Amino acid sequence: MQVSLQALKAFESAARQGSFKLAAEELSLTPTAISHHVSNLESRLNVNLFHRHGRRISLTGTGKRLAEATSDGFRKIDSALEEVMKAGSAVRVTTTSSLAAMVLIPAQHEFEQANPDFSMEVSTGESVDSQSHIIPIRFGDASVAEDSDIISYESFNVFGAYGMKPPSWSNDSITLFTTEWKNRLLPDPPLAAWLEKNGLDGSNIKLKKLDQEFLGIQQAMAQNGLVFCSTTLTKRLLEANLLQQFETEPVKSDLCYYVPNKDSYETRSAARFLNWIEDIFKQ
Amino acid sequence: MQVSLQALKAFESAARQGSFKLAAEELSLTPTAISHHVSNLESRLNVNLFHRHGRRISLTGTGKRLAEATSDGFRKIDSALEEVMKAGSAVRVTTTSSLAAMVLIPAQHEFEQANPDFSMEVSTGESVDSQSHIIPIRFGDASVAEDSDIISYESFNVFGAYGMKPPSWSNDSITLFTTEWKNRLLPDPPLAAWLEKNGLDGSNIKLKKLDQEFLGIQQAMAQNGLVFCSTTLTKRLLEANLLQQFETEPVKSDLCYYVPNKDSYETRSAARFLNWIEDIFKQ
DNA sequence: AGTATAGATGATTTAAACTCATCTAGAGGT
DNA sequence: ACCTCTAGATGAGTTTAAATCATCTATACT
User: Fold this and answer.
1) Is the separation of the CB atoms in B116 and B228 below 8 Å?
2) Residue B149 and residue B277: Cα distance in Å, rounded?
3) pLDDT by residue (tens digit) across A251-260?
4) What domains are there in chain A, each with its CATH number?
5) Which residue from A minimizes the CA distance to B60?
6) B88 vs chain A: nearest CA distance in angstroms?
């Protein structure tokens, strides 16, 4: 006394639409299939689900009750399925505006080219965070993040527009853009450590602080000064000969990019994306 | 990009039970079938639903979410289905204790014999009325019930134990059991009309009132007197030579048996039962 | 280490689902 | 009133999906 789910699905559609023909269209079947399914259901359940007035049909009371429950049930299943399918067919990433603007968005096309099954969506801002299938790439304190979640430890260096003559560190008056995070809990960019490592005292450096790294990078490209920022963000611009670096040594920072609960992303698209982004950071 | 409902059902069971083997048992399939279904689902959705630790499995986050929704959905559908199946496989009737005791229960076996597909359940009392698939046969005022709902208009007559000598209506002192309904809105048994129709004045009749007709019938069978009651209840006892009637004429009453919203019972078992009970009343 | 068990994988079989051809009964138009 | 057109019913035949069988792998337990 088993009833098939497909028969129920056919019945549900016919009940909702009030017509076998329309149900057949909805399910990409022939009206005959619907008719068979419904009558099969009726005989298995020993119940009439539709009244037949010649070529018109209407639900019986029992039919109505069954239709309501099955509609609810299938709706629930369908919406969950849809969500999973969305998660499976696209990677949604949210991150800082700097990483998005300097790395993810420029590389978005490459990713989609290499992974034609998936599309990739990048968003910034705090709004739709933790929506379960959106991958957040956070920028934060390496000592706070889980080791296994960390994608890259950030190093910092100074960069300038491509083609400018290298500054004379000791004599010139230098404008240097750096970043003061909006979030005061984050470690500052390691400028002091950088100066020390490169044997500079910084007395002739005029600091200008912005709250996003990429704003400083844009200023540097606009020849308005140099920028002290993380190397990940500038890699692409160096390769594209839009920025250059000088004879200075980069310094490590306490900052890192990480994905909270990285291991909990099991969709294939997410796995593919995470591998891909880790490769990018490693290069 | 269609996923089959059976695959979802297999996944749901595996997720709930935490094992392909158990899911296979639950669905009367082989573990292989479950494995195929799940991996088919995973590749269609581009998502891993289970972690595989060698021979042990556990749900991924996505799997958990999908499992919850599908479980809910299928639960809903299953319970509706179960209710419909119950309604389809059995007739549940509730009615007065008199009709149940004198007519339905004695005939129950005949019905099941003639309709081996269905079982029949009889209950009395007001408790589990209107439970949607329970058919209530009410005893009431014919002017209040819908015409199309009425199964039979009741006639009344006097009956005595089989084998007793017919009473001498004018001389003997006669004990007559009759009924005073608990529900005071019901028309009284038409005793006055019966006396008139049979040319009796009733002066030598000692009335004893009980609140159920079948109680009076039992008294009559126990030779404790005669009973004035509806003819439907006594038909079977007359045939079985347990009761007899005399040279008196029956009278019509304002009482009837009816099934509220008779036309709304569309299960095959209910239709079969209603036809059957109408036949019984007609005979 | 050896055995037993859960699951994966691929080929084959089986059964369910679907369609096609044909038929019936209203509904709608003239 | 008649013809036509459409929705659905029915039965036989076909196709596809689902289930199994045989085989293999990894691992848990003795």
Assistant:
1) no
2) 13
3) 999 999 999 8
4) 5-86 (1.10.10.10), 92-282 (3.40.190.290)
5) A266
6) 5
